[in-house]
Structure formats: C-alpha cells, structure tokens
Queue: 3 jobs
Job 1
Amino acid sequence: MFNVLEHAFLRPLSSRFTTQFRCYSVSMFPGNERSDVERGGKIILPPSALDQLSRLNITYPMLFKLTNARADRSTHSGVLEFIADEGKCYLPYWMMRNLFVDEGELLQVESVNLHVATYSKFQPQSVDFLDITNPKAVLENALRNFACLTTTDVIAITYNDKVYELCVMETKPDRAVSIIECDMNVDFDAPLGYKEPERVARQETTEELETDAPEFIAPDLGFRAFTGCGNRLDGKTKGTEAAPVPLRATDLKRGVPNYSYKKGTVSFIRTPRPSPSPDAANSTSGFTAFSGEGQALRKKGGRKP
C-alpha cells in the first residue's frame, strides 16, 4: 500500500515539457563557434531543460514546437545540445525569421510527438538553385542536420559556401513531420521568379487554313525533266509532231504530273543514212584508203642462179 502511494506522489503530473526562454541567434552564442547550428534545424537549450525532460515520460528523439504568441507564428525543431545559459535558447537565423522574433524576445518551447515523413515538396527561392547538378542529393545531405519540417517554413541550406533558401510547400502525412531515419520522397516546384522559355508560335493566315492539303506544297516549275525536243538519227524532222505543251501548276495533283500518255504513240524510224562516195571523200580530204600498190618479198620466175 505504501509503495503504491509513494509511486503516485512521485509520478509527474504532466508528461509534456513546456516553458519559455529568451531566444537569441547563433551569432550571439558565447565564442561564436557554433556555425553547425546555422546549417541545420536544431536549437541549443540550457541544462535545466535536460533535467526537466529526464523527469518526464517523453518519447525520443526529442522534438519541440516553438511558438511566438505575439506574431501567432510557430515552427518545429530538434535539440542539438544543452549548453546554453539558463533562461536562454539559441536558434538558427532562418528559424528566427520564420517566427518573426527579435533578439532576447520570449519564445515558448514545448515537447511534441510528430509523425514520420513520407513526402515533402520544396520551392527554391532563387533561380540560382538550378545551377546545382544534382539538387536531390544536395538536399538529402543537408537535411541530415534537420530533425523535422513544417509546412510554410523557409529553410536554409549551404552548398559550395553559398546559402540557398527553400520554402516547404507540402509535407505528408501531416503539416509538421519528423525526418529522422525516414524514407521520404522529395519533389521540387519551379523556383521563385522562374519563367518558361518562350516558344515562337507559327502564324497561319486564313488562306493557308482554307487551302487543301496537296496545295500546301508549292510546285517547282523552274526545272522539268524530259521536256526538250529530240533529234532523229537520219537528220530528218517530222512535221506532224506537235510542240510540247508547257506544264502548269494546276496540272500537278499531289505532286504527280497529269501526263496524257496513250499507248502506241511512240514510233522508231530506222532509215539508214546513205554512205558517201569515194570520189566525194577524195575531193574533200585528198586521201583515199588502200590506193597504193603492194610489193612481193621475192620475185616471180623462180630462184636466181
């Protein structure tokens, strides 16, 4: 009976940690050597907060909701260390801008439990983010310093000594999620101020839209094959042949000439050309082929005695 009563009196009345601290940026931290806080989403609390948290039945990892009652703004974060001065907490500068708090202003800090993230969507706040070759890998590496994400927050990540700001557009399954040891799908929206390349549209006149498809291709009448006049081998001309009719643009139907060809209209006249006489050849050139006299290699009449 005594053990039951003792346990009932020693048990904490509440399992939620809630208190107020004076918030300061990391640049105000003594020694100013905590640049790792600025590159993530975790805060530094005093040792008394750890003493209170150890007495409460809270779940790990420790996640906190930060609320600025004056501006009605809130966000979520993890804790990096418990080494701050009593009554103070140190935040990344981007987190202070989301909360609309000034140096030394009161900030309410309470412990919370968040669902594990399954999906998140980010919008870069500058088109310079497009210069990164593999943005998903860069973001995945930067989110290792974060414990949770809150929709509408503008987080800051550092890559190649340059700070990039990204707005958290959407998180699933809740508005605020935990990203510690989770399998989360990441998506990106178009950067703020990004404009799609303008495409020059083809201007079509009314006449082009009303014409038939085969007439879209203008016929080329500059050169036409097999439109000349032929010469006969015997040198004669045939007066019955009509002159070739010139090809017009209207004669083309889908690119094929409309030839009026009839079978049997082509005839071949094979009249041989008369050969010139030998006298005519001698009179013109003075040379007659095979007109000389031959000589025998030996004389007629037998051998010489």
Job 2
Amino acid sequence: MATTKHLKLLRHWKKMRMGVKKMKTRGKKFQRKKKKKSKNKKKKEVPEQTDPPSISVSDLFPSGEFPEGEIQQYKDENLWRTTSEEKRELERLEKPLYNSVRRAAEVHRQVRKYIKGILKPGMFMTDICETLENTIRKLISENGLQAGIAFPTGCSLNWVAAHWTPNAGDKTVLQYDDVMKLDFGTHIDGYIVDCAFTVAFNPMFDPLLEASREATNTGIKESGIDVRLCDVGAAIQEVMESYEVEINGKVYQGKGYVREDLECSHYTKDFEVGHIPLRLPRAKQLLATINKNFSTLAFCRRYLDRLGETKYLMALKNLCDAGIVQPLPPLCDVKGSYVSQFEHTILLRPTCKEVISRGDDY
C-alpha cells in the first residue's frame, strides 16, 4: 500500500517523464525544421565553360586551386627526392607560385581545346591568331603585365619551324596540305607556360607528327635536376632519327637544321640592355609603349596595331639598330620540306617533375 510520501514521489516522477517527452518532441520538431531548411538550400554550383569559351578560369575554380599537371618521378640518382621531408617542405613553401603557373596552364588547355575544334582549311591565319589570342585574354583575365599572353602566337607553316605570325594585311590562308605549328604561351606575373602542337589535315603527315610527339615525350622523360641538356638533346635526336617519313612517295628522315628567313614579325626588348640615348622622338614614344605593355615579353606588330600605334616601322627599326629591341625572324628549314613540333612546359619541383601543360590531347 502506497504511503503519502510514495504518492508524492510518483506524481513527481510522472511530471518529469512528461517534461522529457515534451523536450524530445520539441527536439524532433527542431530537427525536422533544420533538415527541411537545409534541403531547400541550393548548392553553389561551379560554372561550366561556355562554347566559345568566355568564363575566366578563376571563376571556374573559385577555390583558387588549379589542376595539377602530370607527375613524373625523377630517374636513378634523383629518386631519393620523392621521400625527402626537406624537399617536401620546400614544395609547400612554393605552393603559391605553382598555383599561379597551373592557372596559366589551365588557360592554355582550354584555349587549345577550343581552337582545335574550329580549325579547318580555308581560314585566314590572321583570324586564327586573333581568335586564339582574344580567348586567352578572356580566360586569363588579362591584367597588364600581371596576367596575359606570353608571346605572339606562332602559326608557322610547312618548312617554317617557328617565330612566324601574320603581320597586318597578310592574306595567308590555311590549306588542306599545310603542316601548321601552333605555338602560344600564357603567363601569370611573368611565369610562362610555353606549349605547342602541330595541325595537319592530310593523314600522310601523321608519321611526321608522331615522330615529333614521341621525341618530345622522350625529352620530358629524360629531363631532371642536374641532367645535362646535351644528354636530353641526344635522346631526342635518337628518337627522331629512328623515324622515316614518306611524303608523296618520297622517304625523309628528320633533319631539323634551321636558319633565319622571311619578314620579321616577332620582337623582344633586350633583357640586359641599359639606358641608351635615342635621338628620334618617335622611337622614344614607341619604347615607352613597349615598356608599359610588354616589358621584356615578346611582342609582334599586330600587338602594336591593337594598342593604336601607327607608322612605327622606322621607330621600331631605330630601336633594333640601337640594340634596345631584338628582332626574332622566322626560323626556316629547307624550302619545300615539312617541320612538326610538340612542346610542353615542365616544372622541376624538389620532389618530382610536373608536366604543367599536359592535357588529354597530348
């Protein structure tokens, strides 16, 4: 039989249970509201690139972290670098620099993917270059000398190996039987990603392209810290000479001896030049434009045209004659021959090699 004391305890216990139930119910309601709220909240999506490309890669990667290139290990005596804690720490310190170069590399990949998709015989070379360069400007968020195009777009044809881009008024048209080297660069704060590939519509040039592609990959594989450049060159040459290319029934080996020829389009200010007095006022004015917009980055006549410079050829010659600006004429092989080129930029990190410009295409 329950005493008065027991009844009081029982009532108190029931009240406590009711309180706990209410607290649990409120907790469930709160959880339901919380879940409902998070369900309705939209996730922030990363935008996809448009076609044609128009979104800056900085907007495509809002975290500020850009894709890493292809990682290759060092060979033989440098293999110890992979596990060295000291070298890893050096890499951690250089991460901001690596990220800047990766941003430039991502721009390069996206631009060349777009250009490859639109290239066809019958296009004016000027249109190809200007489309490519304007796409770089959008994707890299061009900003003076802090971000932009690293050098003029090389679109050298056939026996011309490098350093050719159309000057104003050039009406050269890309043909079905042309072999075109598209060589262009991007930069962030002067750190340059230089990367090139070859375009040929006629399949008879496929072995030529394959030879230069394999030679480039061999050079990358052999490269490393403290490796002699002559050894890298020898490995590349061995691969090139192992190929024989048949064009129109005639068999060729790779040669690769070039000379300066044709009209100059590429120029660069001498990196080591000091103050040189100029008498021609127009040359002084042109030099100011070059310093402001290019510094020691390479430029071409089309870039001067775009900046509004006119009647500057005499002033440009004056700067070249004075040794302030260096002309970079096209590099040519024997007329009637064909030259192929593939090129990548390699980052020699303390622990490994990063082929910074590698993509799905090559």
Job 3
Amino acid sequence: MEKKIGRPRSEKTKKAILDASYELLITNGFPSITVEGIAEKAGVSKATIYKWWPNKAAVVLDGFFAATELMLEVPDTGSAKEDLMIQADNLASFLTSPKGRVITELIAEGQTDEKVAKEYRNRYFNPRRLISKHILERGIERGELRKDLNIELSIDLIFAPIFYRLLITGEKVDSTFVEQLIGYVFAGLDLKN
C-alpha cells in the first residue's frame, strides 16, 4: 500500500476558502479578488490554496458554485422539448438573478484572461452542456427526434439566444421568451425527417 505524502485535505479549511472567495466575489467583484485576499480572509496560506486549485478563477468559481448550489438535476419529464424548456428556464432565471450576474461578469473577464475562460467553461458551461446532450440523446432514443440530429448545433441554437440577450442586446430573458425560443427551435429541428 502506497503512503500519501502530506496532510489530507481538511474539509473545514476547504469550506473556509470557498466561503472567503464567495464573500469577496459578491462584495468586491471578480477583478478585485486576489489569492492573497482569499487566503487572508480564510486564515490560510496562499500555498494551501494553490495546493488545491490551479489559479484564482478555479477557487472563485468553486466558491461561487458551492454557495449557490448550481448542481441542477437533469429533468426527465418524458419529453425532450419539456426537459429543455425546464433547463433553459432554470438557466435564464438564475442568470438574471443578482447572484447569476456573476456569470456574465466572469464571461466578460474571460475575454481577456484565458485562465478565467477555461475555468468557467470547464466548471460551469461544459457540465450544463452535457445535461442538454443527455436530454437530446434521450429524445432520439424515444423517437421524438431524428436519429441524425446534430446535437451540438441544436444545443447552440437553444442557448445562444439567451446569452445574446444577456450580453449584447439587454432584452428581457424570462419564461415567455424561453417558451417561445424552445418552440421555434423545435419547429426548426424538423424532428421526424
């Protein structure tokens, strides 16, 4: 049996770091946060943070997601259209909330900092995209959707308009918009051909 080097990760220390990063994010915004500031607020060393996270973006995103409990369950109503409506509506509701606006701040930061972009893609967007993929795959298996459906492009068609409104036009993103969006997307998917 191989012996592990160093002390095991303390859940109490981890929680202190994640709580500190979340509090600093909400209070000061992402650009103002430093690993030094997180370490000071959590009562740990910078080395402890870097032992567990590769950079500021990773620890801040983990703190944010831990505090806002964003691990959404995969809806399974028996209808791919309904499941995607639920997923898109949940996303839109979250992104337009005060806490969800942090995501748009991180997207903006990611335009000039590739580490931030990589972390929010890996920790937030890719897991949610995988949920959408599973929903569409179930729809194909149940015969609701055509077998040759381009799943990746379909996901883009569903979620891109939400981000376009949030980041570009500033137009309303609500349940009515999501319902219309999903209706148009599913009408355009030519489901059975």
